[in-house]
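Can anyone check this?
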Amino acid sequence: MKQAIISAFLGKLRDRFGEYQKERGILEKLEIMSRIPGVAGAEVVYPYEVETAEVMIENMRRLKLEFAAVNVNIKADPAFIYGSLSSPDPEIRRKALDIINGGKDYAAAVGADKVTCCPLSDGYDYSFHTHYARAWERMVDVVREAAAYRPEITLFLEYKPSETRVHCLLDSAAKGLLLCNAVGNPALGVTIDIGHSIYGGETPAEAIAHAALSGFPYYIHINDNNGKWDWDLMAGTVNLWSYLEVLFYLKEFSYEGWITSDTSPVRQDAFETFAFNVRFTRRLWEWLDTLDHDFIREHLERHEFLPIMKLLESNLFAGTRTAAGIRG
């Protein structure tokens, strides 16, 4: 298991009403990250939150951290208010492509093997607001070109149901895989953000299964919410069984990539928030290793829910007298 943190969440955070946490530079964020037990990697935000490649490499080595990913931001520039990858303006599409390619150049320079990008400004707000087919075709064309550039650096596109648009063009795992199929380049994959999946009405473990079966690469962001909004809560704190199922299926498909915390500690201590995320995830991961996976698979194949829940129950409460004879 390799766990990382998106560095932006260790600095100042904002919503529509206020600001939270302290302003910190990237090097201070990395210093904090390096002290969190179990954290081995960082996902850094390009082009807004990075130093030169030389400075970053030196500090990452000093702090014994790896680059989990380079997160390319194509939503902050005012030019992208009305769209980026699907914009009807070819100059704006070119600008978005140049930023993604620049992120790939930066990833190559620092030794990262992937770039992830969430095109939040691509979408629409009203009926009759966009030509769906043309917008999709423009996105496919830009992503095809981005995937072909430096193919040794895999490009992962992250989907989200909404924000900043009422409807994001890339709003589900299915759409992400549809895009991968349309592009047809193995250097393109999908970032599955657990909170985005929940908020979008998906079952996250099923989204992971579809991605794994597609043959395209996938990358995991962890957080949680109540299904009403992307609150970026600590992983497993609302949907515990769903999160446990996510980790089970990551093991089923022999996932060896990074599990990266995309969690927002707006009113909590940032260090302790991420320490919990990493610790709790590892404990669930290791607890799953104690279970009889053949037994679970057998009953999953039969669509038999209760025997699996009895197994989980008996192991969860193994230290209590009520556990005796539950598995049955």
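Reply from J.R.: I decoded it. The first strand starts at residue 2 and ends at 6.
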